[in-house]
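Hi team,

Filling in the usual template for the complex we talked about on Friday. All components are listed, including any nucleic acid strands or ligand strings, so the model treats them as one assembly.

SUBMITTER: L.P.
PURPOSE: interface mapping
COMPONENTS: two
RESIDUES: 845
SEQUENCES:
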Amino acid sequence: MTASEHPDDTARDGPELDGPELDRILSETWGDKAGLIGWLTTVDHKRVGKRYIVTAMTFMLLGGMLALIMRLQLARPESGLITADRYNQIFTMHGSTMMFLFAVPVMEAFGVYLVPLMVGTRAISFPRLNAFSYWLYVFGGIMLWVAFLRDVGPDIGWFAYTPLSGPEYSPGKRADFWAQMITFTEVAALAVAVEIVATILKQRAPGMRLDRIPLFVWGMLVTAFMVIFSMPAVTLASSFLLSDRLVGTQFYNATEGGSALLWQHLFWFFGHPEVYIIFIPGLGFVSAMVETFCRRPVFAYPVMVAALVTIGLLAFGLWVHHMFATGLPRLGYAFYTAASMAIALPSGVQIFCWIATMWDSRPRFEVPMWWVVGFIITFVIGGLTGVMVASVPLDLELHDTYFVVAHFHYTLIGGAVFPLLGAITYWFPKITGRMMNDRIGKLAFVLVFAGFHLTFMTMHFTGLMGMPRRVFTYPAGLGWETLNMTSTVGAFVMASGVLVFLGNIVASLRRGAIAGDNPWGAASLEWAATSPPRPYNFAHIPAVTSSTPLWEESLPVFSGLRVKQRELVLTTVVEAVPDIRDPSPTPTIWPLIAALATTGLFIWSIFSPWALVWGAIPVGIALTAWFWPKSPPRHGREPVIE
Amino acid sequence: MSIRQTFTGDLKVLPTHGFGVRSLTWWGVIAYMLIEGGGFALAGGSYFYLMSQETVWPPASLPPALLPGALFTLIILLSEIPNSLLKKAAEAQQRDRVLWLIVLLDLIGLVLLVIRGFEFAHINVRWSDNAYGSILWALLLLHTIHILTDWAESLVLTVLMFTGHGQEPRRFVDVSEDALYWRFVWITWLPIFALLYLVPRLV
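RESULT (copied from the run log):
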């Protein structure tokens, strides 16, 4: 027997190894150990993705509770409910939690869960990095919230402008916890972005050419590239801030040649793409749901893809519109106004294409579609106020008022959270195997939608009447009382809708109707897997012949992957021709240990620069152990990653 | 599956490794370069932004001494010769050549780290003196971190190549991607060298 004829190497899936026997072997190969050990060592993108989603939703609830506390405080003038200092921490924590711990992670989490299934592969690329990313994210989030609960929460706003956040005006460690939370979440987000790019470009099912990729996957690809190009900016900015605060560098200190505006440029070079990093996956959700419930491909697929890419590119040319009030050169104003208005075009193209899709079909208005309609209405309003504030004279008038608060909640909640809640309803049966309750789902939509508009439509007027953002209270008699009370009532209506939505999830987990593989009659590959999917996703690797594979008469599949060792197929970037059988890493504890070591380094470096030296040693040891082959040399046998 | 499945082909015959764009590792390394390259570019942008705040550059000190920086640049440029040979040897899976070249490159890395120490010692400004000092230290430190991490990673890989695992084809892919990454490290050094040593002498 030569080395390559070992039975573990020669056992392959195919007509002769199929059905329950194949399921048994693959489940053993791709499954995790039972119990806590399995939970801590898993590298299954579905388990990590679910974990990511649940954690992000938990942070959403925490951030939402802070919003309610703020609305209670602002319901009446001169309210003494919370102090100015606590209020500063609360609005900073609300923004930071929602942006860094909820919105970006939850979108990436859906990518982590769905992308490998939608492109028809067995696992995400770099699955151990994926596990590491999750641990780092959750440790960073916990660090920030523990700091907040111990009264060292950041109080500098979610964009932490210098010099306010610098050593002179923010002594203590509050700003440092914020800056280091950035490091945690950006490293985590970048790791996921790399995995998503590699998975989409190299692991697509044979035949899934670039023009057959589902629009949601296109959206995640654009998003991942935006993460890769934008997040280094904020990481650099916050590292400069930390070093100004810890070792006395002068990056942002104007008296020693530094510049506070350097912070704003670096921050918004990240911060504006960030908005689209949150919004583009939302567009992808909508495209997926519109296709399914209209039962036809989305109108003008190439235009939709071009619009996504255009949004991704233009998003990097807008950052200065956050800085119109800083006194920049006039020419800069004109350029960034034009760019800010231009980005409305590809966004509008998307909206028109969905409307055309619905026009040309008989859409089924299941609950996910209610969210789609809610999204279109709300986002169009947010888009229009966006075009308004892109104009410099109007922006100068409205800057830092509640009008801006209304605008960006329309775009972020309308543009991302509504599609997200629709997406949860839509993919819930795939993830859990059960349907969510229809009537409760509609009730949740009505409450959230009505509550949202009551809260934030009102804020447009509060802002036009001159109420600034981030004030912890306001005097009576300015005419803001009724508007503020209305917003507060709306916020609680919306919160009740969120509770109904969550109640529906909890109830449906236990009592929901059994879903089956493809309850909505959708066309993309994730619906070819079981609900919930088996650890190996697909018994055989599907072959794709159209952009709607499950609407074809049959699903061709490939045989021939190893089944006793983890293996998947790499395909070529454009045409998706099968190229390499690639081993996929097995579960291991080392990503968790590496994340713990990295957490130690990051938190320590808030207090001492020497952490970068001594703290790097355990990280290096953990990473080496992570990559070091665990079994003896294989001498010509098929490769494994252990 | 509720949809009918038909077998259309067999993947059995595919190879289990490939170099360059064919390998997943290559894409990981490229993505990492994009991230790190973006960071370098933004740090370079910050340098010019801070320079535009000043009338004189450097504001109150001499530029860094040229000798250590020039020596470093010369050696890191020459290192591409063994690096290219290493990459070729890895792709041809010539283990003996890989072993001595990778050891040579580890030694070169060590020499570079020592010279880097002299660069810091002759930078002629403290990071806390002014924003010019801060950005100089930041650029040099950022690049040093890349030298250091690549060096540590190469050491681990060197040890691995000397064990029985060093005969696996996939380890040669690792060596090849490691050599690719080294190119990134020296190519990014060139603009940083210009910012540190040349721009202050030219403006």
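MY TAKE: The CA atoms of residues 120 and 140 of chain B lie 8 Å apart. The mean pLDDT of chain B is 96.

Thanks, L.
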